[in-house]
Write a structure and sequence with these properties.
Layout (H helix, E strand, L loop, with lengths): L2 H14 L1 H5 L14 H15 L15 H10 L4 H15 L3 E8 L2 E8 L9 H18 L5 E5 L8 H8 L2 E3 L5 E6 L11 H9 L15 H14 L7 H7 L4 H10 L4 H17 L6 H7 L5 H11 L4 H11 L12
Parallel strand pairs: 3-4
Antiparallel strand pairs: 1-2, 2-5, 3-5
Helix pairs in contact: 4-5, 4-8, 9-12, 10-11, 12-13, 13-14
Length: 339
């Protein structure tokens, strides 16, 4: 099971105590690291039934059982992703006062924001993390393609390894911010819903438990290129040029460049994102140095990383390191009130 789900299951166990302990029987009595994604979904289902609450008793007020299932079918009845998100936000406003959704447009980006009322029942932000995961994966089911994120933002501190988050969301992740948000290219809002109502009902009846490695959905060009660059960098190999990657897809460089542009990105931007993500992964490790992060990210020395960060992020490598250090510090009053 994905490491982030293991951490999330541990948080649910601590927050729900005896209720969580009583629901871990059968396959779920095994160590968490032996669970599958389907096991985790079954665990959530049992906790919902035991608490009689779609939000597992973690919110400031209960949410009626079956709400999530209805949202899946509701999404399949819409035309575009933007329509689905709008319907979900309106529906949640009618069914619960503890969580709200809004979509904000920012130039070429869209931000799906989760507003969660501060709850003493959820000291470790388990509900917030679960909603972030669901609201990233469910649109992918409806679209039958990946929803590539520009970044994921969390109101709480970094809990676990930084790589646990990047593997789950496939993007840069930031912590201790004012809002929990999924930020993506606004063009995705116009993507048509492909999943049918029958398929939505099948998913409700037989939840598949796919998370960081979705099955049966198309991969965007940007995600395909990013995966190649990440693999090459992690193996300390030379990075393929755009033309070389295009050739591996049996298309020309101009075509790949155009398809990346249609998705709101470029080869240069993806290469910058990959290097930044690798550097963050290293700096998130205890006692890691800027020099180690620079080398892992494919730079000759620490000054090269600093120059790149100054150009792309407006910060130095030392400032990035300090930022990562702050992510690990608990921050009080993190959950914003529901708007």
């Amino acid at each position: 099971m994905d490491a982030m789900l293991v951490t999330l299951a541990e948080k649910l166990g601590r927050s729900l105590g005896e209720v969580a302990h009583n629901e871990r029987w059968g396959n779920l009595s095994a160590p968490l690291t032996n669970w599958t994604g389907r096991d985790f979904v079954e665990y959530v289902r049992r906790l919902r039934r035991a608490t009689r609450d779609e939000h597992l008793g973690l919110g400031t007020s209960p949410c009626r059982l079956g709400t999530s299932d209805f949202m899946i079918e509701l999404g399949a009845r819409t035309v575009t992703l933007g329509d689905a998100l709008d319907c979900w936000s309106r529906f949640m406003a009618l069914t619960t006062s503890s969580v709200a959704l809004t979509v904000e447009i920012q130039d070429v980006s869209a931000a799906l924001t989760i507003h969660q009322a501060a709850s003493l029942n959820d000291p470790e932000f388990a509900l917030s993390d679960w909603l972030m995961i669901v609201l990233h994966k469910l649109p992918q089911f409806l679209l039958r393609c990946e929803l590539p994120l520009q970044r994921a933002e969390f109101t709480h501190s970094m809990q676990g390894q930084y790589s646990d988050y990047t593997i789950m969301f496939g993007s840069e992740c930031l912590f201790n911010l004012a809002k929990s948000r999924l930020i993506f290219n606004r063009s995705m809002l116009h993507k048509p819903i492909i999943a049918t109502v029958a398929e939505a009902r099948e998913l409700i009846a037989n939840k598949r438990g796919y998370f960081s490695r979705p099955v049966g959905i198309a991969t965007t060009w940007s995600q395909s290129v990013k995966s190649i660059l990440l693999s090459e960098m992690r193996h300390c190999g030379p990075l393929s040029s755009l033309e070389q990657i295009a050739d591996s897809f049996e298309i020309c460089g101009q075509t790949l460049r155009r398809r990346l542009r249609d998705e709101g990105t470029s080869y240069r931007k993806l290469k910058q994102d990959v290097r930044h993500e690798i550097a963050l992964n290293v700096l998130a490790q205890k006692d890691a140095t800027v020099a180690e992060a620079s080398y892992a990210a494919g730079f000759a020395d620490a000054t090269a990383l600093t120059r790149a960060l100054k150009t792309t992020r407006g910060i130095s490598s030392q400032q990035l390191r300090e930022q990562v250090g702050q992510w690990k510090q608990p921050r009080f009053g993190q959950l914003a009130d529901v708007c």
